[in-house]
Amino acid sequence: MENQGIAVQKSAHKQVDDVQHYINGKFVEGRSGTSFDNINPFTNEVINRVAEGRQEDVNEAVMAAKRAFEHGPWGTMKVEARMKYINRIADLIDEEIEEIAFLEALDTGLPISQTKKMTARAAENFRFYARMVQAKLHGESYLVDKEFINYTIYKPLGVIGLITPWNAPFMLETWKVAPALATGNTVVLKPAELSPLTANKLAEVIHKAGLPEGVFNVVHGFGETAGAALVAHPDVKAISFTGETTTGSIIMKNSADTLKKVSMELGGKSPFIVFEDADLERALDAAVWGIFSFNGERCTANSRVFLHKNIKPQFVEALKERVANIKIGDPLDPATQLGPLIEKAHFNKVQSYIELAKEEGCEAVQGIVPEELREGNFVPPTLLLNAKNEMRVCQEEIFGPVMAVIEFETEEEVIAMANDVRYGLAGYVWTNDIKKAHRVAHAVDAGMLWINAQNVRDLRIPFGGTKDSGIGREGGHYAIFEFYTEPKVIHVAIGDHHIPQFGKKK
Ligand code: NAD
């Protein structure tokens, strides 16, 4: 007998149209006319077909964006008028929040209760950057003696290429699109091939908001073709990338020939450290949410949990109880807490890590996937007990609902283990000793540290990692000052400064 959730999903498929590129203000088939299947992670059935972009589609999109930047009204428009468009995008996202959250859950397997929150956040990205650009994007001026006034202005770069992953697509895309457009650039977005639906929806929203043609473009397709063509294109001035570390390094190499500015938001293997004096109930809530929300497919996930040996037994018992009770199910069911992984290949990768953990000596404690969901890409919430930091499962990014639990005794020891990893994206420290909290937070080598907190992020704060987790920062004023614009200096002589008189007869 068919499971009811799967029946709900089957009727949902029919409502989703095939996806086309969005180039120069129009939804178009690719030049080659080829397309690929978009697969539902819950049923592993085809949702729809997606246009497969190639070099010629990327060329067309970049040409449209270049024209719009150099000759369209976007660059010369008054800032207030441009921000009206940006705010209109936010309002339209709010109006379509249910639909966007539904498409995101259908396409990625993320639980709909979580995609709804991310969609609301996506609308805020546009409002935030509209405010930020109006209030903060100003230069400096220096009076240099009585001879000069020097001042800076911040200029948009031109055509920006945005390349995004599948794990929180709408939120991550809007986080790049909003500052790129608000600062006056034009954009070509290449979304992840595994999650094209909400990027397409973003194109619809932006189309409805009435942005001038060519300002925003989307080319769907695979990384090695469409993505690589965008990276290599000489008219693309910068690439903002979020994805795997290995892909980031390929993109950096490939953008060297055209000397592009790049921003890299990459993988993580973040430590979560619980000292014996911590508020253990709250630490438990945060540790469980931090790895099992978003199906564990979360760059800042606390995949390594370090427990002080004195509290480890009770904390592990509590973790086991939580893991047994996490609700696994249809991502479209509002009660679901953990959905299926994005695709079979990723499911197999995560499963193989769990097998490897057992070979490496861990005890795997898992929740139970309901019988009727066994065919799907469901990995139950998994604890890897007795883990050691040097094991591969503690060193490599698994990107699934898998928490390695590691014991420690001293502060020095746990700092050393937390840092003994190639990544440095995030970290979490739990203790009620205020000095120790700051000491450890300063010592853990990561771009972002939370003390006695889950991963709550204010839009004004920079986001990004150290080591193999990335280069540069997104968010806050970092995005608009340090990535999407460039300062230009104007030197104005206000007096008669000395000019050497070469060749002048005495
Ligand atoms: P991925 O690197 O496989 O793909 C990301 C994007 O890059 C996709 O659009 C893909 O098509 C494109 N791509 C692949 N090869 C390319 C190439 N040669 N040239 C140009 N583009 C190419 O990553 P993924 O599997 O989609 O996402 C998961 C990864 O993203 C994880 O490692 C996760 O930690 C990371 N991530 C990081 C952050 C962060 O802010 N640090 C946020 C979310 C996800």
Would you give an account of this structure?
By secondary structure, this protein is an alpha/beta fold. It is 40% helix and 20% strand. The protein contains 16 helices and 22 strands. The chain has helices at 4-13, 55-71, 79-95, 97-108, 112-136, 169-182, 197-208, 223-232, 245-255, 280-292, 312-325, 344-359, 392-395, 411-419, 434-443, 476-483, and strands at 21-23, 26-28, 35-39, 46-51, 141-144, 148-156, 159-163, 186-190, 216-218, 236-242, 261-265, 271-274, 304-308, 363-366, 382-385, 402-408, 423-424, 426-430, 448-451, 466-467, 470-471, 485-493. Strands 14-15-16-13-12-18-19 form a seven-stranded mixed sheet, sandwiched between helices. The protein has a six-stranded mixed sheet with strand order 9-8-7-10-11-21, with helices on both faces. It has a three-stranded antiparallel sheet with strand order 5-6-22. A hairpin with a 3-residue loop joins strand 5 (141-144) and strand 6 (148-156). The longest helix is centred in the N-terminal third of the chain and has 25 residues, at 112-136. The radius of gyration is 25 Å and the shape is globular. It starts with a helix and ends in a 13-residue tail after the last strand. The model is unreliable at 1-5 (pLDDT under 50). Bound molecules: nicotinamide-adenine-dinucleotide. The site of nicotinamide-adenine-dinucleotide has 32 residues, from helix 8 and helix 9.
